[in-house]
Amino acid sequence: MKTRTAGMKTQRGFTLIELMTSVTIMVVCIGFIAQVLIKQSQASSSQSLQRDLEESGRLALLEIARNVRLAGYGITPVAAFDFDRYACTAPGTATTCNGGTGRRDRVDGPDELVLSYRDPNFSRVISSVTSSQVNFATPLKVAIPANSVIELVASGGKVTYLLVSSAAAVGDTRIAYTTLPTTTPSAGYYTPSTTADASYVGANVTLVTRVRYFVANDTDGVPSLFKERGRGNELLYRGIEDVQYTFDIAQPPAGSSFASTTPPAACAGTNSWTFGACTGTVGQPLETATPPDWQNDSYDSANRYTAHPANIRSVNITIVARSTRASPDGAGDPLPALGNRPARAADKFKRTVLQMSEQPMNLLTRQFFQPLVISGPADGNVGGG
Predict the structure, then answer these.
(1) Measured between alpha carbons, how far is 92 from 368 in angstroms, rounded to an integer?
(2) Which end of the chain has the least Cβ crowding within 10 Å, N or C?
C-alpha cells in the first residue's frame, strides 16, 4: 500500500492526447504565419514587378514620343517617315521590312517605326568640296558611320543629300561621300543627288539622324525595346513586349475647298483617316500616294490630304510593358485588342498598357531651316559634332 507524505502534491505530466493537441495547434499556427509571410512576400514581389514594368513602359513611351516630335526637323517632310526602304531586305518592298517578317505594321507581332530628322547638334561650314568629299576646318568631335546621310544646305534653300561612303573618325576634317541612288535607295526618301559643286563652299554640311525602333528579345529572352541609328542595335528598355502605332492623316478642316475629299482606304474596304487601327488588318500610310509639295502647296491643298507619310498629323503610340519574370503567384494579365492586334488571354506575366498621341509638327513647315553659322571661327558647329 502506497502512502502519500503530508504536504506533498501528486506529480503528473501531459497525456499523449494533450501533447498531440498542442503540437497540432502549434503546426496550424506556424502554417498560418508561413502563409501570411508567403503572401506578403508575393505581394511585395508583385508590386516590385509592377513598378518596374510601369517605369520601363513610361520611359519607352517618352523616348519614342520625343523622336516623333523631331521627325522631319530640318529635312524634306517626304523623308520624315519611312515605311518600306530603310532596314528592309528589299528596299521599296514593304513586306520585307520589320526584320524581314512583314511590314512595319504587323497584326501578328510588334510594329516598328522609322523616322528621320536633322541632328540639331551637328553642323560644319564647308571650306572646299570635290566630287567625292566635303572638307571643313573644325575637326569632328563624333565619329560618323558609313552609309549615314548628310545634307548640304546653301543660302537660298539649295539642298543636296549625300551618302557617307566611308566612316569618318573623331578628329577628321573631311567626309567622303557618294551620291544617293536614283531608284529605291535603302537610305530612305531623300531627293536623289548629284555630286556637290563649288556653289556649296561656305555652305553647311549637316547630319541626318535616322532612327529605327523595334521590339526583340534580349540575350536572356526578355522582350525589349531597341533603337538602331546605323551604329548597331542599342538596348533601351527591358520588358517592352509590344508597341503598336496608328497614324492620323491630315483631314480637310471645316470650310475647306476639299471638305468632300474621300478618306484614304486605311483598311481593306474601309475609308478612314487613321492607318493601323483595324483589328486583324495591316494598315500604314502609302509611300506611293501623291506627296505634298511642302514648300509650294498651300496648307489647304488637295496634296495635303493624301495617304502619303508626309501628311501624317499625329502618331498614336501604344506600349505593352511586361514583367521581366513570371508573377510569383502565377497570375498574369490578359491584353485587350490594341491597334490592329487582337486580344490575348492571360498567362503568368504582369502587364500594363500605356498610350500617348504625339504630333510631328515639323511636317507642316513651308520654309527651309538654315543652320546657324557661328560668328568668329567658321565652324558652324551648333554644339556637338
Answers:
(1) 27
(2) N
Kindly give, in sequence order, each residue whose CB lies less than 8 Å from that of residue 105, ignoring residues fewer than 6 positions away: 111, 245, 275, 276, 282, 283, 284, 340
- Contact predicate 381/123, CB 8 Å: yes
Q: Bridge-partner residues for 153, per DSSP? A: 159, 204
C-alpha cell at 42: 508575393
Cβ burial 278-311 (10 Å sphere, 16+ → b, else e): beeebbbbbbeeebbebeeeeeebebbbbbbbbb
Q: How many residues appear in the chain? A: 385
Tell me, rounded to whole angstroms, the distance of Cα 2 from its chain centroid.
95
Please tell me whether residue 27 adopts helix, strand or coil conformation.
helix
What 3-state DSSP class applies to 363? helix
Q: Classify 50 as helix, strand or coil.
A: helix
Quote the cell numbers at residue 94: 514593304
pTM to 2 decimals? 0.84
Q: Can you say whether the dihedral through the CA atoms of 26, 31, 32, 38 is positive or negative?
A: positive
Q: Is the pLDDT of residue 339 over 80?
A: yes
Top mean pLDDT of 30-34, 119-123, 320-324, 357-361 is at 357-361
Residue among 138, 139, 136 nearest 128 (CA): 136
Q: What's the half-sphere exposure (Cβ side, CA atoms, 13 Å) at 252? A: 17
Tell me how far apart the alpha carbons of residues 220 and 222 are, in angstroms, rounded to a whole number: 6
Contact yes or no for 215/242 (Cβ under 8 A): yes
The mean pLDDT of 35-47, rounded to a whole number, is 65
Residue 223 has pLDDT above 70, yes or no: yes
Distance CA 139, CA 332 (A): 54
Dihedral sign for Cα atoms in the order 91, 95, 100, 102: positive
Rounded to an integer, what distance in angstroms lies between the CA atom of residue 203 and that of residue 188?
23
pLDDT in tens, 140-155: 999 999 999 999 988 7
Assign 3-state DSSP to the chain and report helix, strand, coil percentages, each to 5: 20, 25, 55
Strands, E, within the chain: which ranges? 113-129, 133-136, 149-153, 159-164, 174-179, 204-217, 223-228, 233-238, 240-249, 274-275, 312-322, 351-358
Under a CB-based contact definition with an 8 Å cutoff, are residues 118 and 98 in contact? no
